[in-house]
Amino acid sequence: MGRQLYETAPVFREAIDQCDTILRSEWEHPLVGSWLPKPNGVLYPQAEKANIQTPLLNQTAYTQPALFAIEYALAKLWESWGIEPDLVLGHSLGEYVAATVAGVFSLEDGLKLIATRGRLMQQLPAGGEMVSVMAAESQVRQLIASSPGIAIAAINGPESTVISGESVAVRAMQCQLELAGIKTKQLQVSHAFHSPLMEPMLAEFEAVANQFTYNQPQTQIISNVTGTIGDRSIATAQYWVNHVRQPVRFAQGMAALDKLGYQTFLEIGPKPILLGMARQCLPEKTGVWLPSLRPSLIPLPTPLSQAGAVGIPFERGKPDDTELFSSDWQQMLSSLGQLYLQGVKIDWIGFDRNYTRQKVALPTYPFQRQRYWVDVNEYQKNVILHSPAKTLPQQQLKKDIHPLLGNRINIAGKQLVFEKFLGLESLTYLRHQKIFDQVLFPATGYLEVAIAAAKYLFNTPQVAVEDIVISRGLVLPETEVKTIQTVVNKNQNNSYKFEIFTTQSPGNQDTPQWILQAEGKIYADKAENIQTTIDLEKYQSECTQAIEILQHYQQFQEKGIHYESSFQGVKQLWKGQGKAIAEIALPKELIAQATDYYIHPALLDAAWQIILHIITKIETDKIYIPVSIGKLKLYSALRTKVWAIAEIPETNLIANIKLVDNQGILLTEIYGLKLIATTASSLLSSLQADISQLTSTQESALIEQLEAAPISERLDLLTTHIRLAIAKTLGWIDIEKTVMQQPLFDLGLDSLMAVELRNSLESSLQTSLRSTLLFDYPTVEALVEYLANDIVIVDAQYYLRRLYFRTPCETFISSGS
């Protein structure tokens, strides 16, 4: 009963443990086996230590409080997920839990009351029996009227009544009912509950019940005694004394719920027994019936395809009835999902509160178009495309040795080459550093690549990167894969030179053009591994001016640099004369990646950000970017939270940085970080050209260019512009793919892209174009012809000459000549 929840759901476990603590004064045995030297719990006994022949749970003195604890813990778990009842209804001892949930009495009073009830019932002589009768209450009353030792214990449905009393009398009545053609079923119970045999315990139970405090219910509750909404009497000791002896009017309670219009019913119990009885009380196809727990032997009430709704019952004994609901969690989550579908508001924060989760960013707008092909690893895909045999060597199937360094590729010669296919789909955090909405690969990423290469080469705790030069920035387009190669060659002094190159992915071009992004030197640091300690208090006393973190990031945003969540690692920041100190931490969404990196680029970038506050003669219209680093020494892999200390001791634009832990132990040092001042727009224009920049530049000046160009060049200018616009829409870097006579829809253009392309052309041509433009003129040639004739200024005679003679011939021959 809920063992899996007890082991994995903290809210459920806390509620059970709370009940366990309360019951210590009532029981000789623990509820969950937590007391020593008596470890055998009533609910979850340790089988290998158990020395009790009869399970305690079969004794009513233990059964009733244990069931109370299970039901109460389930109610608290549902409550932590935002599921709170509008109305509660219990059945016999279940009404004690319902009353606790409704606030009639506290958990301690309710649990002690039910423990007393169970103990007093256990002390009564055995010999009573209970039988379920498939007949209406009125008919059963007539049949038992002449048997004073028998009473009606429960009215569970229109044709379901339970009788209870002395064994001889009940068995005789059962035979009489069977002879009359009325079906019966004997119940497995220890005592005849809700019968005259309970009366000897009432006086003592009343004495105990009078010791507790009762309150009016805060949530409506249906009374078992009356079958209607409980009145003020439910908050009295006498009500609960009467409750022991009176029949459970469950059918009347369900009728009351139906009359009030309730349609969604959630059973809080170890078995979905009440759901079956409750459905018999309401009209067919009424209500949504959801269990909390379900033993594997009990089938679902409806088919899996209609889980939670009324309908065809499961075929009993069919294996797949219970296969998908073999655990506590699966049943709980199934019912939670059905509640969500019914419009119940779920507290998802509460649902995740006790577990480590990672949020996934989803688009908040429609029509975010991406292309999806066969799900092949990008590295594998590119190798397959360019392997003559179209086969992939086994060593190239392995996982990248590092997220940015990639894998080593086998080549002839002594140099080492590492290759990584880099796209924003796999490293989503890179999207969170932008300049004018362009995603920029962080300069700290080059350092991490160099460190990873050094670790691969030397396999030592301490490595150094020296004389680093960052040649140019790298823009990462949304739909494009970049290939990064790191080439390592040995120098004469036991160091190695590294160079980091990039190009488009090989699948996008026939002859890759490699661009040098960064270079430097790596070597193993052979200095003694002595921990250096930095006096954090000294720096904190020298940096007394606090910087608001919101202001910190606003300063970058005003300059065109946008740091989104993954790059907002500065948590606290103070500055002093020529120095700053900050507490920096890896954002929560990146913590799971921390072990994949030596210094996560987002964490190191946060340390670089604080330099902005110690530049003495800062120009407000400029941004400061790193262009070289003298040396980086790594003593220990960084944690997810460190202290960063930045200083500019002499030259205004050369900084030193130390990264230390909370004890001041030095983890990383950076010397001679050289910055240059530039504007964001100048930086953007100097970055590696991509199709979006090229197209936007030509769009903004197309009309002026056409008017200024000689007539003989206008058609070529227009054609090039259109091909660029098409390539941008299709996500291509190579405009040569846009063949003049090939239908654009054969190239991958869809209806949404057609709208996007038309809007782009409207903007650049500064005119309105028909909505069916790409359907009416589906090739580059047709589109150019239409625009040249009807929209823009292109000499007609020159256009006709190019149309009829697609050769270098410049002799014009008119029709009929």
Topology of helices and strands:
Elements: H1 3-8, H2 10-23, H3 60-80, E1 87-89, H4 94-102, H5 107-123, E2 128-133, H6 137-144, E3 150-157, E4 160-166, H7 167-179, E5 184-187, H8 202-209, E6 220-222, H9 237-245, H10 250-260, E7 264-266, H11 273-281, E8 288-290, H12 320-323, H13 328-341, H14 348-352, H15 378-386, E9 407-409, E10 416-422, E11 433-435, E12 438-439, H16 443-458, E13 463-470, E14 482-490, E15 496-504, E16 515-524, H17 536-542, E17 545-546, H18 549-558, E18 561-563, E19 570-576, E20 579-585, H19 601-609, E21 623-634, E22 641-647, E23 654-660, E24 666-678, H20 680-686, H21 691-700, H22 702-708, H23 711-730, H24 751-765, H25 773-776, H26 780-790, H27 796-804
Parallel strand pairs: 1-6, 7-8
Antiparallel strand pairs: 2-4, 2-5, 3-4, 9-10, 10-14, 11-12, 11-18, 13-16, 13-21, 14-15, 15-16, 17-19, 19-20, 20-22, 21-24, 22-23, 23-24
